[in-house]
Amino acid sequence: MLPAQPKAPMPTLAAAQPSQFAVENVDFAYPGHAVFRGLSLRAQPGEFLVLLGPSGCGKTTLLNLLAGFMAPASGRVLLDDSPVRPEHPALGYVFQSPQLFPWLSALENVRFGLRMAGRGSEAEQRALAIEHLALVGLADAADKLPHQLSGGMQQRVALARTLALQPGVLLMDEPFAALDAITRIKLNEETLRIWSQLRQTVVFITHDIDEALFLADRILVLAPAPGGIAAEFDIALPRPRAAATRQLAQFAHYRQQVSACIADLQLQPLAA
Ligand SMILES: Nc1ncnc2c1ncn2[C@@H]1O[C@H](COP(=O)(O)OP(=O)(O)OP(=O)(O)O)[C@@H](O)[C@H]1O
Ligand SMILES: [Mg+2]
């Protein structure tokens, strides 16, 4: 009989160790199509950074570079001061579509990543999956299959699946873009509630100005490809943010500033 493998330590709902990112002078092109030239940016530990830009400017490409799924032609992408690798345990990715296994329950979908990472016993994995389903407000849906859940609930399961691995950085690629406006606003609030509890570094991509303003500590506006960062805005709206935040004169002021910047760039945001 083989000796028992040592188990990787179990994560808990306690705060993750937030990571930092540095993109240094990155060039990237698909064959015949330059996307970034000399792109540089940083995300500080625990920062909520939002990248705002129109369709086709390279948002998903940038997130794939940050995740180490693709390598820059030149320049460097550093996660906690080392070149990023996709298998880095600090990395968590939430995609635009939930990408759940349709034959697995919500709980088993959340548990899947823990199983793959070999974290804990089955009982520990189940307990952690339930904790994270509760964190995203889905404690009662643990046994449901994805097709029994709404689009917003499916995206919550996807978020729980990623959070259960306790990432130090959460890369979110327009995670709520396919949802109706009311669900999206609700999930924006949920995202901030969870972030205030776990405090990872978040890099969140959107083409929606209000979503960007509501969430961000800092917004970077991406220029059309081939480009880089066109403008940067520190968003000093008070936290915790809630529905009333969107009614503040300061919110309207920021919206006007960011919209004017985008108009100056002759960008066309897809959402109002
Ligand atoms: N595999 C690929 N091969 C060639 N060109 C690509 C590839 N993937 C993306 N592109 C092009 O690179 C540019 C950036 O694409 P990317 O998907 O990063 O944009 P995006 O900002 O995420 O857009 P969206 O808001 O529509 O998701 C686009 O012009 C796109 O057509
Ligand atoms: Mg994209």
Descriptive terms for the model:
Rossmann fold, alpha/beta, 7 helices, binds magnesium ion, 6-stranded mixed β-sheet, 4-stranded antiparallel β-sheet, binds adenosine-5'-triphosphate, 272 residues, ATP hydrolysis activity, ATP-binding
- Category by helix and strand content: alpha/beta
Widest β-sheet, arrangement of strands: 6-7-8-3-9-10
How many domains make up the coordinates? 2
One letter per element, helices H and strands E, the order comes to EEEHEEEHHHEHEHEEH
Task: State the CATH superfamily name of the largest domain.
Answer: P-loop containing nucleotide triphosphate hydrolases
CATH topology of the largest domain: Rossmann fold
Could you walk me through the main structural features you see in this protein, from its secondary elements to its overall organization?
The chain is built from 7 helices and 10 strands. By secondary structure, it is of the alpha/beta class. The protein has 2 domains: 17-90 and 173-267, Rossmann fold, CATH 3.40.50.300; 98-166, no CATH class. The longest helix has 18 residues, at 181-198. It is globular, with a radius of gyration of 19 Å. The relative contact order is 0.18. Bound molecules: adenosine-5'-triphosphate and magnesium ion (MG).
